[in-house]
């Protein structure tokens, strides 16, 4: 099939590359010419395992190309995906200006019948607005091409996006016209051996499903984090409780890991946007507000624990920090719990020695003044940052941190104290190795 993907951000790039991999002819339109030049050379500006190799192969094979010209990109497209950003507006609702600008441009340029698909996470009613914008442009030009608009939200996780796209749990197709549904069914058939996993529904239901899925996952996390808080007081280990409840299939084992809070570009933004939608409809979103509040609190817990440990005196203390990205497998710092901790530590006068396999460059740019002043040291070696530390804090559970040489770490630290923000270590084993260990929702 001839496909055009508009937007070479994280979603657009993965979508374009994976459709090309499945034998479609894909043109990806990106308005930033420098990004187009980079991508055309096979350089991928985001960190996503497996993406660069696949993209290079598809470029070389001629299945995938990049352009900054929308007109050239859509010329032969049967399906056009809109995968541009929907950042949070000032009031937390989704800012649709990029999506609607693309719709306007499509209205100005389209001259053939095609299917336009919203891939970006957009509030209910957006597909209708996109259709209005496109049709207004077509009508002005007296262009009779018939355009169908559908919603096909993505459920990719950063760090495993290629795998998620190639082997999806389900694909949601929201389209009110059979012809549009049929095109998307054909396009996704090779990704879904089991056709029951392609779910067709109304456009509005598809748009809402995306928000409901992310809000539910965020709720699971905030719920377990609240349980962890109660457990800690009662001398109960949340890790035992997690296993105890997760084995009930109605609850499930996923997304019930207590930790120092969720981050990323999706959960925080989508929960906020859904709150605004509910308010707009006169519904009090009490659960969603609690999910947000619990997460904000959760991000402060590691700092509170450190402050207590040092009796309120962090000035001059050396704190080693493992993991800066909001989760393993990405260099993305958006809404990362590490930033809340880092800000608080720097403000309190601590010296921070931080390590991350992918995100140190971004942190160096963001905290240039602290790096310059010698208050923040960055390294890719977990051992280098443990040197002389009064405490070590695990924030992001990268594989590299799972089984370190603890005797070596202990030897390097001034004080063997470990705060485990993701509960990945065995508390008893660390105690045996001479560490003072503190987890989230685990008895001291
Ligand atoms: C999330 C969803 O999982 C995807 O399905 C969705 O497509 C995507 O948002 C999106 O809307 O684009 P992502 O933000 O990449 O994906 O990351 P997740 O793997 O879901 O992790 C989010 C955060 O939750 C991380 O900070 C992680 O550390 C935290 N988390 C996750 C927990 O604290 N506990 C858990 O049990 C699971």
Report on the structure:
Its EC number is 1.1.1.22. The protein has helices spanning 10-21, 33-40, 51-60, 70-74, 97-109, 126-140, 161-166, 178-188, 203-234, 238-246, 267-280, 286-298, 301-309, 337-347, 360-366, 368-372, 382-386, 406-412, 427-432, and strands spanning 2-6, 25-29, 64-67, 79-82, 114-118, 147-151, 171-174, 198-201, 318-322, 351-355, 376-379, 391-394, 417-420, 436-438. It is α/β, with parallel strands linked by helices. It folds into three domains: 2-201, Rossmann fold (3-Layer(aba) Sandwich); 211-297, N-(1-d-carboxylethyl)-l-norvaline Dehydrogenase, domain 2, CATH 1.10.1040.10; 299-438, NAD(P)-binding Rossmann-like Domain (Rossmann fold, 3-Layer(aba) Sandwich). α1 (10-21) links the parallel β1 (2-6) and β2. The mean pLDDT is 96. It binds uridine-5'-diphosphate-glucuronic acid. Uridine-5'-diphosphate-glucuronic acid is lined by residues 121, 154-158, 214, 217, 221, 255-257, 259, 262-264, 266-267, 326-327.
Counting structural domains, the number is: 3
Structural class: alpha/beta
Q: Please give the radius of gyration in angstroms.
A: 24 Å
Bound molecules: uridine-5'-diphosphate-glucuronic acid
Pfam families: UDPG_MGDP_dh (PF00984), UDPG_MGDP_dh_C (PF03720), UDPG_MGDP_dh_N (PF03721)
EC number: 1.1.1.22
Pathway: Nucleotide-sugar biosynthesis; UDP-alpha-D-glucuronate biosynthesis; UDP-alpha-D-glucuronate from UDP-alpha-D-glucose: step 1/1
Protein name: UDP-glucose 6-dehydrogenase
């Amino acid at each position: 099939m001839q496909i055009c993907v508009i937007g070479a951000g994280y979603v657009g790039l993965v979508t374009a590359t994976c459709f090309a991999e499945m034998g479609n002819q894909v043109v990806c339109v990106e308005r930033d010419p420098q990004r187009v030049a980079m991508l055309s050379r096979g350089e991928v500006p985001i960190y996503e395992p497996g993406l660069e190799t696949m993209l290079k192969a598809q470029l070389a094979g001629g299945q995938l190309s990049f352009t900054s010209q929308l007109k050239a990109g859509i010329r032969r497209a049967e399906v056009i995906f809109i995968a541009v950003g929907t950042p949070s507006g000032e009031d937390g609702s989704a800012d649709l200006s990029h999506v609607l600008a693309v719709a306007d441009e499509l209205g100005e340029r389209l001259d053939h019948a095609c299917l336009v698909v919203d891939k970006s996470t957009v509030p209910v009613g957006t597909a209708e607005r996109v259709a209005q914008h496109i049709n207004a442009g077509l009508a002005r030009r007296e262009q009779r091409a018939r355009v169908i608009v559908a919603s096909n939200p993505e459920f990719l996780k950063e760090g495993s996006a290629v795998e998620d796209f190639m082997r999806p749990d389900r694909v949601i197709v929201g389209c009110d016209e059979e012809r549009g549904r049929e095109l998307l069914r054909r396009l996704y058939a090779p990704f879904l051996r089991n056709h029951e996993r392609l779910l067709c529904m109304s456009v509005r239901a598809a748009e809402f499903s995306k928000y409901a899925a992310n809000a539910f996952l965020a709720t699971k996390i905030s719920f377990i984090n609240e349980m962890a808080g109660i457990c800690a007081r009662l001398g109960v280990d949340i890790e035992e409780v997690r296993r105890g409840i997760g084995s009930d299939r109605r609850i499930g084992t996923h997304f019930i890991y207590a930790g120092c809070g969720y981050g990323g570009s999706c959960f925080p933004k989508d929960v906020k946007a859904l709150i605004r939608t509910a308010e707009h409809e006169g519904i009090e979103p009490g659960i969603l507000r609690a999910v947000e509040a619990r997460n904000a609190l959760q991000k402060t817990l590691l700092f509170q624990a450190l402050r207590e440990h040092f009796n309120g005196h962090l000035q001059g203390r050396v704190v080693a920090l493992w993991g800066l990205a909001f989760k393993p497998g990405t260099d993305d710092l958006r809404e990362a719990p590490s930033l809340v901790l880092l800000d608080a530590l720097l403000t309190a006068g601590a010296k921070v020695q931080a390590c991350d396999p992918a995100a140190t460059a971004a942190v160096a740019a963001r905290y240039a003044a602290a790096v310059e002043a010698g208050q923040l040291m960055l390294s890719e070696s977990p051992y280098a940052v443990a040197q002389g530390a009064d405490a070590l804090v695990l924030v992001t559970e990268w594989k590299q941190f799972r089984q370190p040489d603890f005797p070596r770490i202990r030897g390097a630290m001034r004080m063997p104290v470990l705060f485990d923000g993701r509960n990945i270590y065995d508390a008893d084993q660390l105690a045996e190795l001479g560490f003072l260990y503190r987890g989230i929702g685990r008895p001291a």
